Amino acid sequence: MKITLKIWRQKNAKAKGKFVDYELNEVSTEMSFLEMLDALNEKLIISGGEPIAFEHDCREGICGCCSLYINGQPHGPEEKTTTCELHMRSFKDGSTITIEPFRAKAFPVMKDLIVDRNGFDKIMAAGGFVSIDAGSAQDSNSILIKKKNSDEAFNSATCIGCGACVAACKNASAMLFVSAKVSQFALLEQGKVEAKERVVAMVNKMDDLGFGNCTNTYACEAECPKGISVANIARMNREFLSAKLT
Amino acid sequence: MTKLDAKIPKGPLADKWTTYKATAKLVNPANRKKLDVILVGTGLAGAAAASSLGEMGYNIKAFCFQDTPRRAHSVAAQGGINASKNYKNDGDSDYRLFYDMIKGGDYRAREANVYRAAEVSNATIDQLTAQGVPFAREYGGTLDNRSFGGVQVSRTFYAKGQTGQQCLLGAYSGLSRQVKRGTVTMYPRRDMLDIVIVEGKARGIIVRNLVSGEIERHSAHAVILATGGYGTVYYLSTLAVNSNATAAWSAYKKGAFFANPSFIQIHPTSIPVLNDYQAKLTLMSESLRNDGRIWVPIKQGDKRHANDIPEEERDYYLERRYPAFGNLAPRDVASRAAKERCDAGYGVGETGLAVNLDFKDAIEAQGQAAIEDKYGNLFEMYEKITGLNPYKEPMRIYPAGHYTMGGLWVDYNLMTTIPGLFAIGESNFSDHGANRLGASSLMQCAGDGYFITPYTVSNYLADEIKTPRYSTELPEFDEAEKAVRDKMNKLLAVNGTESATSFHKRLGKILWDYSGMLRNEKSLKKALALVDELKEEFWNKVKIPGVDKEINQELERAGRIADFFEIAKLIIIDGLNRKESCGAHFREENQTEGGEAKRDDKNYAYVAAWEYIGDNKAPKIHKEALNYQFVEVKERSYK
Ligand SMILES: Cc1cc2nc3c(=O)[nH]c(=O)nc-3n(C[C@H](O)[C@H](O)[C@H](O)COP(=O)(O)OP(=O)(O)OC[C@H]3O[C@@H](n4cnc5c(N)ncnc54)[C@H](O)[C@@H]3O)c2cc1C
Ligand code: FES
User: Fold this and answer.
1) Domain annotation covers residue B289
2) Cα A74 to ligand 2 centroid, rounded to whole Å
3) Using one digit for the tens of pLDDT, what is the confidence trace for B257-269?
4) Which of A96, B326, B389, B423 qualifies as a cystine partner to B319, CB 3.0-4.6 A?
5) Hey, are the CB atoms on B241 and A57 less than 8 Å from each other?
6) Which of A17, A77, A83, A19 is nearest to A56 (CA)?
7) Is B127 on the interface with A (CB under 8 A)?
8) Catalytic site positions of B
């Protein structure tokens, strides 16, 4: 297929960026989206240009490295699919594809399509853990957990920390990310002891870092490549309120 | 000649670790914060070590090349993590787990280390569970288990097909807690390019800041490498595309011996190579072999759709050849069996380089929902990549480069031959012999990090409490930094015509074809010549756009590929040296009549530890004899 790409190019964090057009004539429908960008980069390198900087690592939808805002959607058009899992069979011959970095005040652009998502680490360090020193844990089966709760905690825990929720939200809120972690621990006995301190610390940190408020548009859930549910946000709000009340 | 001393504690196997812990030197809590430890790599092994050593109060500086620890390739591990809990009451014990790993590794691993790995496995599961890792549970609320290849008990804990993600996120949350406490400082987006040795001890590292391009120096009282495996040397592998050998390789060039580099596991169940653009191969977890049956048509070149081939015209070759273990034969055996069928013309798919992994019977017996519950995300992943629905037709799979049993040589302390330099997780060689059993790597990584390094690193640091913090102005740092800059400038100066990746692809193909699942003297010699040629071409033709003082992904890549060329040669040299077949290392000259690997215990029951003695000199071999005291060395049979 023939594809036209409009790609955001930006030399570094301080430079002003702009869209640049590229044509690719031999795109196969079997290529993954990132393999298509690899092919473009290969062309750029050989012809003396600068390849497009973008992040990726596992290329199987689990590490959360890849990002990209494709035709106005984080991770592109397919539901529950990361950019690295997206394939060119999802696009038509002759189409134009616009590729931008994730945009959010809390995710500054570093170069081309790479943004700084370090805020998530800071939120995690504020309270995203259970305080248990190695060596002090009891036998695992001494804590019984309902399969239903454990399955639900697992679902929340499958967040890959890619930041699509923030990029999708008009307020650039990180509520889905934070609430998924809060929920995972709140659902498990192990996490209950510190539940109150945790939710307050993580929410405060999120606010400090310049992530926006949640106004219930649910764009985050719609765009989340892992299908993390907004029910997590409701649970976190309850946890937060009850922590504030006591 | 340096004599390799593995420093194994005396006494009965089951007492060794207890003895070690009881007699190891300790560091007073008040002294710990004066001691700096550099930790390179924050995957499962590194993040676990950071949290444990941080808890103890050491001052940890942790580095990774991704933007955050949560993206390390441990995140991609799918099937599970082993422990000898015996929750299933099916005969498991530390000894059984140890024995399975020794046998699975084809009697090429060190008994004492393997036993210890088994011994700490239960504490690891408890630790992870307590941290909130949502392992799969039974309806009664207890943890569930499943079985994995090469064993006959159910000892694998899992979280659907995302066990690695959940374990890593658990360890990462422990690390985050230490960041908050101030014991761990995280340095993400850094590429470690060299080790600094002062007066014979590891005292620091040189890294490139991948954002600013600055070369930075960091010093410490000890350095731990937890930098993962080098399976990406094949270009196409199940590893994340940025996984690399550079950290371990720089240690090797500074004097750390490299053990059994040619022991690389080819995993039997990966999505096959589909086209030329492919940048990586995606694993379909071994756990699928619990319910999936592997087959090819009985007729050569049968091009019918799998669903149209009747039962009696299918060859379930693993069940046929290995009735005792069937589809759960260990990885090396299952991979070679797949290759054998495909090479003989029975392969399926467009390329003929694939076999079927069929869930029809399991779905019929258990219902689709049960299969979905166990493997849902894997089935989805398969469909996204291939566009085919594995609930409706068999998956097509083929072996792919996966895991490196070889790695930096370490003693019982997990210390390399450079004093003060430790290697943990996949980056060392110690626990898996010539073939790793499924679900035992996460177990080893977490065990090394949580429960072993706290003792062994402390034992080393106990003699360092009077050593003041090191200055990075020492001439040793100048020298190391200069070497790093020289190499980078040399790469940038080539200014050739071809991308670094194009060389990586060609290198990978040479290794896959001539030093892959099967190898022989001739093929290995050929590989050696081809790698030399290609390396020369790389240094004359590679093109790296941009400059060093900015984000420059091509520069990062080219540096790693330059090291792959070097490690590729060591892999081949090691393969040539070992004139026997064992585990993943299959020398065609050494096979039984039935086509199984034929070991030569008389001549090769040793660990080959290679010493670097100069760029254009053949590396020097040191042999650590493997004297089995606790198991009887037998022919490894899964029939
Ligand atoms: C697809 C797949 C599935 C698997 N499934 C299983 C399974 O089900 N069960 C099991 O037990 N095992 C499994 N394995 C194996 C297991 O996942 C790995 O062996 C293990 O996770 C390795 O962990 P690690 O901590 O040693 O290294 P990694 O997790 O690879 O981490 C390496 C770390 O080192 C850093 N690093 C590397 N080089 C440098 C450098 N030069 N400078 C700075 N930082 C550096 C990286 O940033 C990263 O933080 C699987 C492997 C793969 C590829
Ligand atoms: S590259 Fe890992 S999720 Fe896309």
Assistant:
1) yes
2) 13
3) 999 999 999 999 9
4) B326
5) yes
6) A83
7) yes
8) 331
Chain A closest-CA separation from residue B126 CA (Å): 5
Protein residue with its CA nearest to atom 8 in ligand 1 = B79
Distance CA(B218)–CA(B205), nearest Å, equals 5
SS3 B31: helix
- Residue B523 belongs to what domain range? 475-604
d(CA B465, CA B167): 33
Q: Please report, as a single letter, which amino acid is at residue A89.
A: R
The answer to whether B126 contacts chain A (CB < 8 Å) is yes
Tell me the pLDDT tens digit for each residue of B37-69.
999 999 999 999 999 999 999 999 999 999 999
Q: Which of A55, A63, A75, A80 to mutate to test the pocket of ligand 2 (most atoms within 8 A of CB)?
A: A63
- From chain A residues 162-221, the ones with a CB under 8 A of any chain B CB are 184-185, 188, 190-191
Pairs of residues, one from chain A and one from chain B, whose beta carbons lie less than 8 Å apart: 222
Q: Is the CB of B164 under 6 A from ligand 1?
A: yes
Residue B545, pLDDT above cutoff 80: yes
Name the residue among B505, B88, B576, B54 with its Cα closest to residue B278. B505
Q: Are residues B273 and B261 in the same domain?
A: no
The CATH code of the domain that includes B417 is 3.50.50.60
Residue B498: inside a domain: yes
Number of domains in chain B: 3
| A22: helix, strand or coil | strand
Domain with B492 in it: what CATH number?
A: 1.20.58.100
Q: How far apart (Å, rounded) are the C-alpha atoms in residues B84 and B100?
A: 11
B624: in domain: no
Distance CA B62, CA B189 (A): 11
* Domains of chain A in sequence order: 3-110 (3.10.20.30), 118-134+142-245 (1.10.1060.10)
Question: Three-state DSSP class for B326?
Answer: helix
Ligand 1 atom, smallest distance to B45 CA: 25
CA distances for A160 relative to A66, A163, B134, B289, angstroms: 10, 8, 15, 26
CB neighbours of residue B577 within 10 Å: 14
Residues B179 and B196 in one domain: yes
> Do the Cβ atoms of A140 and B125 come within 8 Å?
yes
**ipTM, 2 dp:** 0.98
